[in-house]
Amino acid sequence: MERIRFWEFSVARTLTKSNEHFRRAVQRMPLGVASNFRYWGDEKTIYVKSGRGGRITDLDDNVYVDYRLGYGPAILGYAHAEVDAAARAGMEMGGVFALATEMELKVADRISRMVPSAELVRFSNSGTEAVMAALRLARAYTGKDDYILLEGGYHGLFDAVMWHAPMHLWNQVGDPEIAPYSEGVPVSSRSHAYFVQANDANALEEVMKRHADKIACLLIEPIMGNCLGIAAEHEYVRAARELCDKYGILFIMDDVKSGFRVARGGVQELYGVQADLCTFAKAVANGYPISLLAGREEIMRKLGQGVAHGGTYTAHPVSLAAADKTLEILEETDALDRVAVYGQALRDGMSAILGARGIAHSFVGHPSMSGLYFATEPPRAYRDWKSSDYSFYNAMAQHLHDEGVLCEPDSREPWFICAAHDDSCLADTLRGFEIAVDATLRDGAGTARKASA
Ligand code: PMP
Predict the structure, then answer these.
(1) Where along the chain do its domains lie?
(2) How many angstroms is it from 131 CA to the middle of ligand 1?
(3) CATH class for domain 81-332?
């Protein structure tokens, strides 16, 4: 029997209940939400009722195939029966004790097996916390304060890394200005950071050569999960490793978004290059809050021997139990292979639709977290995004939402795939994508440059 698809019954999307809820929520909560990134406009903010597999349902019963997946965590899909059962069992322990439990070692052992450089492991609650700890540890170990970041990288919401190149303001002449992400970030927190472009090993060496005596670490996302998924080239990552060794600088790989997604052992396995320290969150526990800092024993042993680390909720039994089950599934099944296969099929399907209309496009990064980029040549660095037709993407995203395909409204966020995305998700997505592309062309949005023109 043929599957019945949700959209056969769907009428034009309305957000009546979400909008009503927004008007109440905004009375009590800034922007009516718990994270600035979740506010999409007074009339466009979505409130979720539930998530199952690769789809979510909003308050108005609109169903979406979800490619945001909470910015990546739901690697196995929402409401995963085995992970949720493990989390419930974790709850049976009774809470948090400000004491250790046996489960910590079990999960740390598995991580150490899966991740190349993870000789020792510490848990935290969020990506931000793990990266903060990594930076502090690198500074303590090297006795130096400065660090190098990539333009387009994102490492969480703490002052030291809340500096970026606001590319939309850049006039494509000279270097973009470096500005804080937010008001309230002290100017003094900028003074320790150097910025380089991705995939330019010469520029990286220039900075290291000049400032090696002050630089503690290179802190990068080899796959920029907040910037189209732009991937560092293999030679660049290898060169970065060698340069770090040459200049006495630690290499921190921030695998918060890409870890346990692009490969079982994250970017280190994918590139065959080991970090000194690495950070993970998102996919670790399929959405339960947990993050981790791992790395070389000699460095990690400084935790507790001069370097502070802790937190009331670290290694919460519920999250740990969910992590144990999620990582077991990722390590022992073909879940990540299926994720990559789906991601490639999605790219192929979108490419056929765009190609048939002569729209210049390319895909960026790993198929499990693809950036869709409106220019023929994929970007090698964040600056390249400026010359893509991102206004076409932004207009198309609105139509996609109306068609039940949920991507981030901002073109810089990749499309995340989970193991629960199935053939019906793919068919619904491509059907919606075709409609959305045609609607965007009709609107006359962007320049929609012809691939062959
Ligand atoms: N590092 C990277 C690479 C991230 O993508 C993020 C979040 N998107 C963070 C750190 C911060 O993680 P969190 O939001 O859990 O604090």
Answers:
(1) 81-332, 334-396+420-453
(2) 8
(3) alpha beta
